[in-house]
Every structure is written in structure tokens, then in C-alpha cells.
UniProtKB/TrEMBL annotation:
UniProt-recorded name of the protein: DUF4295 domain-containing protein
Cross-referenced Pfam families: DUF4295
Lineage of origin: Bacteria, Pseudomonadati, Bacteroidota, Cytophagia, Cytophagales
Organism from which the protein derives: Rufibacter sediminis
InterPro entries: DUF4295
């Protein structure tokens, strides 16, 4: 049987993490793609401003 791997988002430093998913429009085709990144909870607003 296959074993499941469980990822934890908490580190030993105690920071909580959030996954930020942004839709980015391609200038050539006009199609949207999604960009994901993991950021600390206190930096979510900064990540969305980029």
C-alpha cells in the first residue's frame, strides 16, 4: 500500500502561512494564468500588492 505524505505548514518558528493565488493576465494572448505562493500571514497584503 502507498503511504500518504502529510505536509505541515507550521514551522518551528511558529509562523502561520497562507497560500496566495493571483490571476495574472498574459499581455500576448489575454488569457489568465494563476500564480501561487506561500507567504507568512502577516505579509499577505504585501504579496497581493505586487
Amino acid at each position: 500500500m502507498a503511504k500518504k505524505v502529510v505536509a505541515t505548514l507550521k514551522t518551528s518558528s511558529g509562523k502561520d502561512w497562507a497560500k496566495v493565488i493571483k490571476a495574472v493576465k498574459s499581455p500576448k494572448t489575454g488569457a489568465y494564468t494563476f500564480r501561487e505562493e506561500m507567504v507568512p500571514v502577516d505579509q499577505v497584503q504585501d504579496a497581493l500588492k505586487k
